[in-house]
Design a protein that fits this description.
The structure holds two protein chains of two kinds. Chain A is mainly α. Chain A contains eleven helices and two strands, in the order ααααββααααααα. By secondary structure, chain B is α/β, with parallel strands linked by helices. In chain B, strand 11 and strand 12 form a beta hairpin. The longest helix of chain B is centred in the N-terminal third of the chain and has 23 residues. Classes of the chains: A mainly alpha, B alpha/beta.
């Protein structure tokens, strides 16, 4: 096979990985601050995907344009969910948190099944079949737009957390819970905001994902698992790590599919996870537990 | 005194135990007979399909065959069926569990389940419980090679599909006046796809096919993205694409072909995915061109015309396809056997199914009859091509109503 083939596959893998990364970023934000593992992550993304599909079907609103509104809706959903349902479980044992979120995931998937039926829903934009030719590289337009939007959204989130007062408060809360309480921060509100931010990331990723994959009510668990693989590889709680993990997993799957057999490409993603757990348990960009 | 009598009555003596156990044994022994002897009323048929999960689209498509069946069966003078729906969730374990549940809920016969892996699991349950299973769609040969007494299949095996496909391909190449010299073979890596892959290795040399497989690409049927697979296929520069797929992956592959600007001479499919309504509705003009070599209906048969008319009336704008045809025929076999058996006794039903001889049917071939293994070995395939949102039949000659359009019109010229 020529070098062009490898180049094409690598570019496609990186672009897909960027969107994966944004989705996993939400999981990382939530865990990084609240220390709760969101087992309903993929299902939350499927809600966002259905919102994007409905908006497109009813009003022909492009999922890329609707990225911010969908993220805003998911922000509100995340805030209410955390404040109303998840917050009482924060101090409870991890297995009860696990059960709560798995139950939530099942409820979401089945509600979507009742509302939309089992058929795959798709978004057929004007550029759905477009691709750009850059020398020997053929770039899928939908993936390119989604990848660029993922970078823009992630940069905005980094900027918010780094430079805004609210962002600094959230980081303070993540770094030192007791210290945050001592200086008078409203930790419960910050927890709800953090979960809402994570949900917004999932919302943005879900909106973009409709450009790449069809949505069905049962799509969630696959993406929950994928998000786990990515954040553990990149470093649980590390936001940059989530993006790096996403790109690494996207690239690994793509190259494994090309060099070996496509049937086994997920196996290589899990092999990366095992290697990371063996040799760098805190993840590529994660901080070692003190 | 009262306390004493209560404790006395509550005490379990050896005599009480023996009497109770004996009575329970008699009741337990008698219960099955009372169930078996129950006659009259509709036959309870558990229909297992992948109604959710990644195969849900096709499962729902099969369900349409169930929905339009009752008035047609009634018009044929066949007894009424009570349909009990079961969802395999596109998952082998769920298929097994739901089959067991349907039987425990009173299903007297099972129909299903579209997917070979799920059907294999259901067949094991049906055989263990002694409840007849009529397979609507599932091609893995091993299902009817186990010596099962309660499992029947009115659908060709992978080997039969391939044999017919090769014959029909040669016929199509002959009419089109074009023959691909190289193909890339892409297939799902599930039970059906693997069986077809093995079958190709065995049967292709026997049929002396004019093309060579330059690359075989197996992939996960639940894959989210098939861009790498299509890039790999494109890199071979093969003349045609030989496919064994499902619906979701057929959609993904078509989209990637368009995005990667590759239009092979032909797409030759030997499985589902490329002729379903959802394929036409999702892709519009881009759906035109693929040729499927599949079990199909004979448009010249009277019952096929009746079924098609009922289908079009119930689902305007949709096309009758394999999924409804073979699901309907499974119910036809069930109702016909129930009429002849005159009983819901599973053994009597199985014996009646084994003696089936339906010549007024829908699918291509002489009719529905089962061999000693429970396989209808006379059912035939057709070659159909997507054209203008519908399918036309190219082969076999006796069922053809159009000539092949060859090569595929480039995707870039269809906007």
């Amino acid at each position: 096979m020529s070098f062009d083939v490898y180049l094409n596959v690598a570019v496609a893998g990186i672009l897909t990985g960027l969107v994966y990364g944004l989705m996993a970023l939400g999981l990382s934000v939530i865990f990084g601050v609240i220390r709760i593992v969101n087992f309903a992550h993929g299902e939350m993304m499927s809600i966002a995907m259905y919102i994007a599909v409905v908006l497109f079907t009813a009003f022909h609103l492009d999922p890329l344009i609707m990225l911010v509104p969908v993220a805003a809706v998911m922000f509100v959903f995340g805030y209410v969910l955390q404040a109303g349902l998840i917050n009482p479980f924060i101090t409870r044992p991890e297995h009860t948190q696990f059960l709560l979120l798995v139950a939530l995931a099942i409820i979401i998937a089945n509600t979507l099944l009742i509302l939309f039926g089992p058929d795959a829903r798709t978004v057929q934009t004007a550029y759905a079949y477009d691709s750009f030719q850059l020398g020997p590289v053929l770039i899928d337009a939908s993936k390119a737009y989604a990848g660029i939007a993922a970078i823009a959204f992630a940069v905005a989130l980094f900027a918010f957390l780094r430079f805004s007062l609210l962002g600094k408060a959230i980081r303070a809360c993540a770094d030192n819970y007791t210290g945050a309480l001592v200086v008078g921060l409203n930790v419960n509100r910050l927890y709800a905001l953090s979960f809402a931010l994570g949900a917004a990331c999932v919302g943005a990723a879900g909106s973009m994902m409709t450009l790449i994959v069809d949505v069905t009510p049962s799509i969630g668990p696959v993406y929950t698992l994928l998000a786990f693989v990515i954040v553990i590889t990149g470093g649980l709680g590390s936001m940059a790590g989530a993006l790096v993990g996403g790109i690494l997993i996207g690239l690994t799957e793509a190259m494994a599919g090309l060099l070996f057999t496509p049937s086994a490409k997920s196996m290589f993603a899990f092999a990366i996870l095992v290697l990371v757990l063996l040799f760098r348990p805190q993840g590529i960009l994660g901080r070692r537990a003190s | 005194m009262h306390h004493q009598s209560r404790s006395k009555s509550a005490r379990l003596t050896r005599r009480v135990f023996t009497t109770t156990a004996g009575a329970a044994a008699v009741l337990a022994g008698a219960a099955p007979f009372s169930v078996l002897r129950a006659q009259g009323g509709p036959l309870k048929v558990g229909v297992l399909l992948p109604r959710s999960g990644f195969e849900a689209g096709i499962g729902q498509d099969c369900q349409r065959g169930v929905d339009i069946a009752p008035p047609i069966l009634k018009s044929l003078g066949l007894p009424e069926l009570t349909i009990m729906n079961g969802d395999t969730e596109s998952n082998v374990d769920a298929a097994r569990e739901h089959a067991e549940k349907l039987i425990s809920d009173g299903a007297q016969l099972l129909v299903g389940a579209f997917d070979s892996g799920q059907t294999t699991a259901i067949a094991q349950v049906a055989e263990q419980k002694g409840i007849p299973l009529i397979i609507n769609i599932a091609a893995a040969p091993q299902i009817t090679e186990q010596g099962y007494k309660f499992v029947f299949r009115n659908f060709p095996t992978a080997g039969m599909i391939l044999s017919d496909a090769f014959v029909n391909q040669k016929e199509v190449f002959g009419i089109a006046g074009a023959t691909p010299k190289t193909v890339v073979f892409m297939h799902v890596n599930d039970t059906f796809g693997t069986a077809m892959s093995k079958g190709i290795g065995v049967l292709m040399p026997k049929f002396n096919m004019p093309y060579k497989i330059v690359e075989e690409i197996a992939y996960d049927p639940a894959a989210r993205d098939l861009s790498v697979e299509v890039t790999k296929a494109k890199a071979t520069n093969a003349d045609a694409l030989l496919m064994v797929s499902r619906l979701n992956d057929a959609l993904l592959i078509t989209r990637e072909l368009i995005k990667q600007r590759w239009t092979p001479q032909a797409i030759l499919s030997m499985g589902p995915g490329w002729y379903e309504d959802q394929y036409f509705k999702t892709l519009g003009k881009m759906a035109d061109g693929p040729i499927s070599f599949v079990p199909w209906f004979d448009p010249n048969k009277k019952l096929a015309q009746t079924l098609e008319a009922a289908f079009v009336k119930a689902y305007p704008g949709s096309n009758l396809n394999t999924n409804q045809v073979f699901t309907f025929e499974a119910l036809l076999v069930a109702a016909d056997a129930y009429k002849r058996a005159g009983s819901t006794d599973p053994k009597a039903l199985a014996d009646a199914i084994r003696a089936t001889n339906i010549t007024d049917n829908v699918s291509v071939g002489p009719g529905i009859r089962f061999n000693a293994k429970g396989q209808n070995d006379k059912v035939k395939d057709s070659a159909i091509q997507n054209r203008g949102g519908k399918t036309v039949t190219l082969a076999p000659k006796e069922a053809a109503n159009a000539k092949p359009e060859w090569p595929l019109k480039p995707y870039q010229d269809r906007a």
